[in-house]
Automatic annotation (TrEMBL):
ATP binds at L38, R39, G80, K83, T84, T85, E146, D147, F148, R189, Y199, R236. This is Holliday junction branch migration complex subunit RuvB. Mg(2+) binds at T84. The RuvA-RuvB-RuvC complex processes Holliday junction (HJ) DNA during genetic recombination and DNA repair, while the RuvA-RuvB complex plays an important role in the rescue of blocked DNA replication forks via replication fork reversal (RFR). RuvA specifically binds to HJ cruciform DNA, conferring on it an open structure. The RuvB hexamer acts as an ATP-dependent pump, pulling dsDNA into and through the RuvAB complex. RuvB forms 2 homohexamers on either side of HJ DNA bound by 1 or 2 RuvA tetramers; 4 subunits per hexamer contact DNA at a time. Its EC number is 3.6.4.-. It is found in: Cytoplasm. Residues 69-202 form the AAA+ ATPase domain. It holds the Pfam family RuvB_N. HAMAP family: DNA_HJ_migration_RuvB.
Length: 361
């Protein structure tokens, strides 16, 4: 299988504040290197996403039986859930090479034409963050996906000529963290669309045990459960936490990980039992202690925690909302009763009464 030696350009935010957190779902340089060794090689090894695996298995086996290339596949979901891994598995199951690129890397139609014209028959083209591709390239992709043909424009102005270029049949695997940004004409050209869900703790325990075996790390069931419970439903975060706990265990516990060692290690790295880190807790503490649980505007909250507005909105808030610790309302951000309970605080009487209408008695 031919893999791009430089690895995928994920096209995700590159500001360091988005990728210096253990509980961030994006991949950094270390993750990319380690994931290559930990990635499952076929659908049988892939843990979780049961419905997606079952449906994809049917799509691929039917294509093989027909002797045809597989339909184009669109994978959506949060970072770290296995979209890149599934694209590589698709190529492996189809016995085809894979080409890896990303939406931000394709800024001109000519960039896409160069990639498409060099594809081999049956090859898998993985296009990460496909929603960030430029509009001219996107329009060229429509024809390439549907008719396996592109029109290359030669010249400029009135003398420009469109030269049709036939393409060999190929399978496009698009991945996106924001499926709603894909235009309907592009989305409709995918024969199979799947949404990747967050993982259950029991599934993440299996991920941790599998990765520990590959990394030659001794871990018991309780230790794996402790790591899984703090991993935000994301395998990439589980693997990252495992590596940090491994480091702690090698220094403090002769390399063996149990629940006590895992909990102690993650306290050092400031990841609590629900997966919140320093930034998450800082947002909650400011909301509760400074603003009585809200409502408070996003900009004011960001100033209170000493972070940019975008950091709070795009990095901390999604998980806090998903965990039911914070709510977005027309008047501003509001802490839920679960947030007060998680930090061991008692809401003021007026706050508790004011929030009954929002969250129930």
């Amino acid at each position: 299988m031919n893999w791009d030696e430089t690895g995928p350009d994920t096209g995700e935010l590159t500001d360091e504040r988005f990728h210096d957190r253990l509980v961030d779902g994006g991949a950094d340089g270390e993750d990319t290197a380690v994931e290559a060794a930990l990635r499952p090689k076929d659908l049988g090894e892939f843990i979780g996403q049961e419905k997606v695996r079952e449906q994809l298995d049917l799509v691929l086996k039917a294509a093989l039986a027909r002797g045809a290339t597989a339909d184009h596949v669109l994978l959506s979901g949060a970072p770290g859930l296995g979209k890149t891994t599934l694209s590589m598995i698709i190529a492996a199951e189809m016995n085809a090479p894979i080409r890896i690129t990303s939406g931000p890397a394709i800024q001109h139609a000519g960039d896409l034409a160069a990639i498409l014209s060099s594809l081999q028959e049956g090859e898998v083209l993985f296009l990460d963050e496909i929603h960030r591709m430029s509009r001219p390239a996107e329009e060229m992709l429509y024809m390439a996906m549907e008719d396996f043909r592109v029109d290359v424009i030669v010249g400029k102005g009135p003398g420009a000529t469109a030269i049709p270029l036939e393409l060999p049949p190929f399978t496009l695997v698009g991945a996106t963290t924001r499926a709603g940004l894909l235009p309907p004409p592009l989305r409709d050209r995918f024969g199979f669309t799947a949404h990747m869900e967050f993982y259950a703790p029991t599934e993440l325990e299996r991920v941790v045990h599998r990765s520990a075996g590959l990394l030659d790390v001794a871990i018991d069931t309780d230790g794996a459960a402790e790591i899984a419970g703090r991993s935000r439903g994301t395998p990439r975060i589980a693997n990252r936490l495992l590596r940090r706990v491994r480091d702690y265990a090698q220094v403090k516990a002769e390399g063996r990980i149990d629940r006590e060692i895992a909990a102690a290690a993650l306290r050092v790295y400031e990841v609590d039992e629900r997966g919140l880190d320093r930034l998450d807790r800082g947002v909650l503490e400011a909301l509760l202690k400074l603003f009585g649980g809200g409502p408070v505007g996003l900009s004011t909250l960001a100033v209170a925690v000493g972070e940019e507005r975008e950091t709070v909105e795009e990095v901390a808030e999604p998980f806090l909302v998903r965990e039911g610790l914070l709510a977005r309302t027309p008047r501003g951000r509001v802490a839920t009763p679960a947030a007060w309970a998680h930090l061991g605080l008692v809401p003021p009487q007026h706050t508790a009464k004011g929030q009954q209408g929002l969250f129930g008695a």
